[in-house]
Amino acid sequence: MSWLPLSFGAPMVLWGLLALPVIWYLLRLTPPRPRTEVFPPLRILARVLRREETPHQSPWWLTLLRLLMAALVVTALAEPSAGSFSRGLKIGSALALVIDNDWASAADWGKRVATAER
Q1: For a pLDDT cut of 70, what percent of the chain falls above it?
Q2: How far apart are the first and last CA of the chain?
Q3: Pairwise pLDDT comparison (29 vs 76), residue with the higher score
Q4: Domain spans of the chain, in order of start
């Protein structure tokens, strides 16, 4: 038995993890400074200077959190599944099925029961 039986439905999507360094570079990229134009009514607002935060000055933990979220999205798109039913099932072993029995399934209920019994 494996330590972590994990398989992916679309393993080619995991190649998207190679894009993480590019995402990191784009998060650290600093936009060019805007040109300043003199606009007289804004003199009052010029006194209230706020420190401009650019992506280059974002905290390291925020950048790490963003990269982790991107990695989780790529991993989720690869359709992970824990365990494999093809290895674990044997002829005559117990199997539990959950079947929806609402009003929409009433039309072909007999066919569903027959399929489940097979």
Answers
A1: 70
A2: 29
A3: 76
A4: 6-92
Strands (E), 18-115: 80-82
Q: Tokens in use for 97?
A: 């099925």
Q: What is the DSSP letter of 52?
A: P
Q: Which two structure tokens, joined as six digits, stand for 8?
A: 């992916």
pTM of the model: 0.45
Backbone angles phi, psi at 82, to 5 degrees: -90, 125
User: Closest Cα partner for 20 from 59, 73, 60, 58?
Assistant: 73
H or E segment and range at residue 6: strand 6-8
Q: CA-based Rg of the chain, rounded to a whole angstrom?
A: 28
What is the 3-state secondary structure of 20-40? HHHHHHHHHCCCCCCCCCCCH
